[in-house]
Amino acid sequence: LQEVEKGMPTSNPYHNSIHVAHVVQNMHVCIVRGGLGEYMGMVEVLAALLGAVIHDFEHMGLNNDILVKIAHDWALAYNDRAPNENHHTSAAFRLLQRKECDFMRKLAKPIQAHVRKLVIDMVLATDMGEHHRITSLLKGDLLPRIQAIQAGGEVPVPNADADAFTRPKSTSLFSDPGMADKRLDTAGTSLMLCGAIKICDIGHSYADVAVHVRWSELLEEELWKQGDLEMSLGLPLSYLMDRSKAGVTKSQVGFFEYVVRPLAVAWSQCFPAFGDVLLRRLDVNLQHWQQFPRTDSGATTGAR
Fold first, then answer.
1. Among residues of the chain, what percentage have pLDDT more than 70?
2. Nearest to 89 by CA among 77, 106, 107
3. How far apart are CA 158 and CA 37, in angstroms?
4. Could you give the C-alpha distances from 65 to 25, 127, 304, in angstroms and in order?
5. From 15, 59, 87, 212, the catalytic residue
6. Is 15 among the residues known to form the active site?
7. Going by C-beta distance under 8 Å and a sequence separation of 6 or more, which residues neighbour residue 35?
8. Are residues 206 and 278 in contact, defined by beta-carbon separation less than 8 angstroms?
C-alpha cells in the first residue's frame, strides 16, 4: 500500500492517492452494504479491493487520447489500446514481484491466477471506451445470472475445475447462514466486479453535493492542465480542456444523463436496495447542475 501510494503523483489534482482511497472505500461499501458480498468469497473480496487499490497506479493526469497522439511509451507498449489502464495493471503486478511487496506469495498458484485475472478485468473496465459495452452487459448478462440465483436455479460453470477453489460448499462470505451458495461463476464474478469498479470510480457522483462539486472542480483543473500541455505541444485542444471555455463543471448534466445515470440504472437492477440509494443521491446532484446553463452535448469527459 505504501508503494502504491508513492506511485500516485501528488501533482495530479484528481487522479491521486485521495481518489484511490475514495474508490477503495466505495468498493468496501459495495461489498459489505451493497449486496456484492452475497456473491463473493474471500478470494473475490481480495481481488475487488486489490483492483480498487491499483486501478490508477502511476497515473500521470493524462487521458488515453493524448498518450496515443504523442506516441508515449505506454501507448507504444500497448499498441494504442487503453495505455493508461494497461500500464496501471502491468506496473502494479511488477510491484508485486518484489519480495517485500508480494503479500500473495503463500497463496496457491491457481488462486493467485484467479485474483490476477479478476484484477486485470476490473482495471481494464475503467477505460471509458468500455463504458457503454459494460453497462449493456450488466443488464443483458449479469442481471439474468443474479435472477437465476435468486430464483434458486444454477448458473452454468463453463470450467468447473477452474472454479473449484472459489466455489466451496460453504455459503458466500456475507450471505445468511443456511442459505444456499450464491456464488457466481468466474465470468459472472468478473462482470460484477467490472461494474463495481466503474460505480466506485465515479463515486463522487453519488456523494454529498459539496463533496461531488469539489471533485468535479479537481477533475476540471486536471483536464485543463492536459489542455495546457496540448497547447504547448501545438496539438488541437481536446473537449473540455480549454481554460478559456466552459469546463467539466459546465457539462455535468450531459455527463450524468448519458454516462453516469445509465450505469446507475443498470446497477440498481442488479442490486436494487443499494442501487436505489445511488439513484436518489445521483438525482440530487443532477438537480444541482440543472440550476446552471447547459453548455455540453452529452459527450464523455475523457477523464481517463
1. 87
2. 77
3. 22
4. 29, 11, 9
5. 15
6. yes
7. 271, 273, 274
8. yes
